[in-house]
Design a protein that fits this description.
The protein is an alpha+beta fold. It has one domain (about 25-190): Glutaredoxin (3-Layer(aba) Sandwich), CATH 3.40.30. Helix content is about 35%, strand content about 20%. The strands form four sheets. Strands 5-4-3-7-8 form a five-stranded mixed beta sheet, covered by helices on one side. Strands 1-2 form a two-stranded antiparallel sheet.
Length: about 200
């Protein structure tokens, strides 16, 4: 009887772990939680351009590391503009205002679609922890990559003169070629996304 109870508990653990893993890389989404645009409208970024690969770049207005990556983000957006790749900048800081986001866009010349995630719905769903960190969804709504843009930042405050691995670019090149990127996850270095205040 005791052994049977242990088997049931183990079974419940496996089922729970499987359900919790429903948002990891490689898992498709049947429905997508809404995000907010700058007008306060609730949108589904994966449905706005259903035939496109969707790239979510998590950023903060006050994060020097993500701001240093603006030229790289612009370059990649331009490079893949003819390959049905849609870039979004996702602002997860609940305290940032729409005005501050617009000022940030103007200051850095960012012309990408903007999402606000003040309730951390997308942060929790994708598992991102820092800015900048990127997530790629393919046209099947599968999360196929999560991690860094490149390896220039070794650790917080420790950088290389030049990146030697261009992870986001390589992942997008692989997807455009009809394959899934490997590795599917890398470790991003940046400004921590703080937990929501209780």
């Amino acid at each position: 009887m005791l052994e049977r109870s242990k088997q049931l508990l183990y079974g419940l653990f496996v089922v729970s772990a499987t359900l919790l893993a429903g948002c990891v890389v490689g898992t498709g989404l049947d429905s997508t939680p809404m995000a907010l645009n700058l007008a306060g409208e609730r949108i589904d970024p994966l449905q706005e351009s259903p035939a496109a690969t969707t790239v979510l770049v998590f950023v903060r207005t006050d994060c020097p590391i993500s701001n240093r990556y603006v030229p790289q983000i612009k370059r990649l957006g331009q490079k893949f503009s003819d390959h049905a790749v849609k870039f979004y900048l996702v602002y997860p800081n609940p305290d940032v205002t729409v005005g501050q986001i617009k000022d940030h866009q103007d200051e850095y010349g960012l012309q990408y679609a903007v999402l606000r995630d003040p309730q951390h719905v997308w942060v929790d769903m994708t598992g991102v922890t820092v800015t900048p960190e990127v997530v790629i969804f393919d046209v099947k709504r599968q999360m196929v990559y999560r991690g860094r843009i490149d390896n220039r930042h070794v650790d917080f405050g420790v950088t290389r003169a030049f990146a030697t691995q261009h992870d986001l670019e390589r992942a997008l090149e692989t997807i455009v070629a009809g394959k899934k990127p490997k590795p599917a996850t890398t470790t991003a270095v940046g400004c921590f996304i703080l937990d929501l205040k209780s």
